[in-house]
Design a protein that fits this description.
Blueprint (H helix, E strand, L loop, with lengths): L21 E10 L6 E11 L4 E5 L6 H8 L7 E6 L2 E2 L5 H10 L1 E4 L11 H11 L6 H10 L15 H15 L3 E5 L7 H16 L3 E5 L3 H6 L2 E6 L2 E7 L3 H12 L2
The structure holds adenosine-5'-triphosphate (ATP).
Length: about 260
């Protein structure tokens, strides 16, 4: 199957682009209490239209991972709302969150969300099977080949490098077409050629209607996205549309300056 062939969307069960807008309104999150409490997010609002790609940047400790986890329903914010692929997940039950994770959301995190006892191919096929589909072997192989892991289909996550594991997660997102893909440092463990190829894959997913929200420290990766939000001390310090890598790097340096 070619990469441009439309795959049925797991979310809608129909062919065509899934609708995966993400919106956060007034998100706040504090860890701990009393003198040691840390305000990780303070009144963060943002919109990611369906079929667009948002990069989240900021200095270490600025709240990027916390924001990604709250948007993906992995952590609950203390205040504010998250609407993901049409569902308000702020007060959703664990059952609803589990259904969303199986149908509408994909994750490409390192050391996360791959099943250690399954091969790369089985991991890629798992969400489709859980959704009741019967993925064809060629479909799974094509997804693994598109991330350069055609020869690792029978390897288990423990036999793969961190970057390869993340590419397995990307292959899974290619095969299952979640409405929204959350990625944490998708190019972090990759050399520049592999990095370009992953960014190209993400662009094709977005062009095909999927939404991508990605945390990155890499200005070149951020410049591949449609917009970039910059966090500082748990708040949004800046937002740029289609910036160059140089502008991203300069904006980040400005935030990191003491
Ligand atoms: N589980 C936790 N318990 C207590 N504090 C936490 C916890 N997780 C994060 N924090 C704090 O919240 C703030 C934001 O952390 P977060 O991991 O979201 O930042 P980040 O921008 O992703 O950082 P990095 O780039 O270093 O990964 C930091 O000050 C961090 O120390």
């Amino acid at each position: 199957m070619s990469e441009t062939t439309p795959l049925p969307s797991v979310h809608t069960g129909r062919a065509g682009p899934p609708a995966g807008a993400v919106a956060a309104v007034g998100l706040s999150k504090t860890y701990g209490s009393g003198a040691t409490s840390v305000a990780a997010l303070t009144d963060v609002s943002l919109q990611v239209p369906a079929g667009t790609w948002l990069a989240v940047m900021g200095p270490s400790g600025s709240g990027k991972s916390t924001l990604l986890h709250c948007l993906a329903g992995l952590e609950r914010a203390d205040a504010g709302r998250v609407v993901l692929a049409g569902d308000d997940i702020s007060r959703a039950s664990d059952r609803v969150l589990t259904r969303l994770r199986r149908t509408a959301i994909g994750f490409a995190f390192q050391n996360f969300n791959l099943v250690g006892s399954l091969t790369a191919a089985e991991n890629v096929a798992l969400p489709l099977r859980l959704a009741g589909a019967r993925p064809r072997r060629a479909q799974i192989r094509a997804a693994l080949e598109s991330v350069g892991l055609g020869d690792r289909a029978r390897h288990k996550p423990g036999q793969l490098s961190g970057g390869q594991q993340q590419r397995v997660a990307l292959a899974r997102a290619i095969a299952t077409r979640p409405a929204v893909l959350f990625a944490d440092e998708p190019t972090g463990a990759l050399d520049s050629a592999a990095s370009r190829s992953v960014l190209g894959l993400l662009r094709r997913m977005v062009d095909g209607g999927q939404t991508v929200v990605m945390v990155t420290h890499d200005p070149a990766a951020a410049a591949a996205a449609d917009s970039v939000v910059f966090l500082l001390d748990g708040g949004i310090a800046d937002r740029l549309e289609r910036p160059s890598a140089d502008v991203v790097a300069a904006t980040l340096a400005g935030l990191e300056r003491p």
